Amino acid sequence: MAPSSGPVTSAVTALTPVQVAVDDVHVRYRTPSSDTSAARDVPRPLRVVNRLIGRQANVAVRALAGVSLVARSGDAIGVVGLNGSGKSTLLRVIAGLERPIRGQVLARTQPVLLGVNAAMVPELTGQQNVRLGCLAMGMTPEQAAAAYRDIVELSGLGPQIHHPMKTYSSGMGARLKFAIAAAANPKILLIDEALATGDAAFRERSQDRMDRLRASAGCTFLVSHAAKTIEETCTRAVWLHKGHLVMEGDAYAVAQKYRWWAWNLAKGEDEKASSLLDDAFREGHDTAVRVTDLYDPTAPPRHVRAR
Ligand SMILES: Nc1ncnc2c1ncn2[C@@H]1O[C@H](COP(=O)(O)OP(=O)(O)OP(=O)(O)O)[C@@H](O)[C@H]1O
Fold first, then answer.
1. What CA–CA distance (Å, rounded) separates 213 from 143?
2. Residue 90 sits in which domain range?
3. How far apart are CA 104 and CA 275, in angstroms?
4. Is 78 a member of any domain?
5. How far is Cα 232 from Cα 6, in angstroms, rounded to an integer?
6. What Pfam families does the entry give (predicted)?
């Protein structure tokens, strides 16, 4: 694991090939709401009908509001932000699991999303889930069998690999999911909070695996609430707030700013927090990525776009 005393270094330059380009992505969900004032965008006749039949109106929730960023080979990009700021949505769009209402994502290869909620069958043993997971990622049964030993080793589960997954702690489950996703050797690996749930030994092994992936010209995205994890494991970071990209840049610098803002917020220093957020937005605006040259022949192919 990288020492906590300083930032993780990176040799990525503007000439390093782009692996992922997120271009002005907007995502909006529709969800039922019991808040009648929030349903203002619902036409009045429909509101009346809904009230009469006791149905809740669907309201729009803006999850991402025009996010743009670029990940190059060798980048490890941390994503920080408060609950509901759009971090998981960003990873889901990059993975192609969510379609934006505006904008697009370009990706050189299929990104693999490792989420703590990744589908696994709780009644099956770890061993059976490894096989299922490998097949679901597109491996042949022979490739799945060949990958098995490595996966078990990386997960550190030992004999518990033969127990049903529903008996695992959340950290053990997350470790197994990480190990399965890493076995696919994806060039673009998206990790949603998995590392935070593992113990120190597992964090070291998973960090080593991520470093190897970056060294083989891949890139990783890591969502974490812990700014310290981002500082220690990433080269760059993006800070999301209410679906907006506040700033992106060197992981250490962004995480420090985010941490200071979040600390002030938690202490009830609302004015100070608000001014720090404004400053960060302004600073971030100056360095914001604009994906303009989409016809560059060296750019990654289109992966997901709005209908
Ligand atoms: N399937 C969904 N339907 C409706 N709204 C959703 C859905 N998924 C996410 N949202 C909303 O979109 C916004 C962004 O959610 P998202 O899960 O991306 O945030 P997050 O930053 O990952 O949060 P957390 O840190 O709590 O995991 C939130 O307001 C959330 O309520």
1. 19
2. 1-25+70-111+186-307
3. 32
4. yes
5. 7
6. ABC_tran
Q: Which residues line ligand 1 (CB under 6 A)?
A: 29, 31, 61, 63, 81, 83-89
Tokens 């020492």 belong to which residue? 3
Residue 252 falls inside a structural domain: yes
The domain that holds 237 is classified in CATH as 3.40.50.300
- What is the interface pTM, i.e. ipTM, of the complex? 0.96
The amino acid that residue 32 corresponds to is P
CA distances from 263 to 134, 217, 259, 276, 277 (A): 41, 36, 6, 11, 12
For ligand 1, atom 12: residue with the closest CA: 63
Task: Choose one of 27, 56, 61, 83 to mutate for the ligand 1 pocket test, by most ligand atoms within 8 angstroms of C-beta.
Answer: 61
Q: What is the DSSP letter of 39?
A: G
Tens-place pLDDT, residues 138-177? 789 999 999 999 999 988 999 999 999 999 988 888 888 8
What residue type is 299 in one-letter code?
A
Q: Calculate how far, in angstroms, residue 221's C-alpha sits from the geometric centre of ligand 1.
A: 17
- pTM, two decimals, is 0.81
Q: How many CB atoms lie within 10 A of CB 187?
A: 21
CA 107 – ligand 1 centroid, Å: 23
Domain count, the chain: 2
Angle at 304 between CA 94 and CA 141, to 5 degrees: 70
Q: How far is the CA of 84 from the centre of ligand 1 (A)?
A: 5
Tell me, in angstroms, the distance from the centre of ligand 1 to residue 251's CA.
Answer: 23
**What are the DSSP calls for 100-143, one per residue?**
-SEEEEEESS--EEEETT----TTSBHHHHHHHHHHHTT--HHH
In a domain? residue 58: no
